[in-house]
Amino acid sequence: MLKKRAISSVVATMLLILLTIVSISILAGFIVPFVKKSLKSTDCFEFRSYYKFDDSFGYNCYDTNGNEKSYSITLKADGTNTDEEPESLSLRFFKANGVTVLNIKNGNTLPEITMLDPSLGSNLIIPTAGGTYPVLSYLYTSNDLYDKVEVYPVLADNKVCDKSDSVKIIKCS
């Protein structure tokens, strides 16, 4: 005759508890990084409409001088919903077959873009809602014809937030 041996109920319970703990550990290895990544996406929430193109000066247009085009762009910082300021901003100029990206950070210089007001000097400044210059104008020179420009806030960790505003560029009158 065969002797039948069964696992005692204590051992079976311990194996089920151990299996549950291992399963939870494996799932946590996937779920915790996913949740952390999802929570980081809220960093840009308060900057979703931080920059606006300002038409009060009659800019956001271009002039032509031969093949060269000069784009006058005016930005206004509206930080009423935030206590922080973006580290920099990204301007994206769109044309029929591509896009040109210009990253503007305080103190930087770019040969193709300058401050429209020469009294501000040669270093670029970004508008800040709580700062000295909440509204600033830029002059971008290019041989390309663009039809739209968009602005994106950039945070200190170099994270580019979603588009804050866009404007159709027309010929200056």
Please give a quick description of this structure.
By secondary structure, the chain is an alpha+beta fold. The protein is built from one helix and ten strands.
Order of helices and strands: HEEEEEEEEEE
Largest sheet: 6 strands, mixed
Number of helices: 1
Main structural class: alpha+beta
Strand content: 25-35%
Q: Which regions are unreliable across 5 or more consecutive residues at pLDDT < 50?
A: none
Radius of gyration: 27 Å
Overall, the morphology is elongated
Topology:
Blueprint: H1 9-40, E1 51-53, E2 61-65, E3 68-77, E4 88-95, E5 98-105, E6 113-115, E7 135-142, E8 148-154, E9 165-168, E10 170-171
Parallel strand pairs: 2-10
Antiparallel strand pairs: 1-3, 2-3, 3-7, 4-5, 4-8, 6-7, 8-9
Question: In words, what does this structure look like?
Answer:
With 173 residues, the chain is an alpha+beta fold. It is 18% helix and 34% strand. It is built from one helix and ten strands; from the N terminus they run αββββββββββ. The protein is elongated, with a radius of gyration of 27 Å. It starts with 8 loop residues before the first helix and ends with a strand.
What keyword list fits this structure?
alpha+beta; single chain; 10 strands
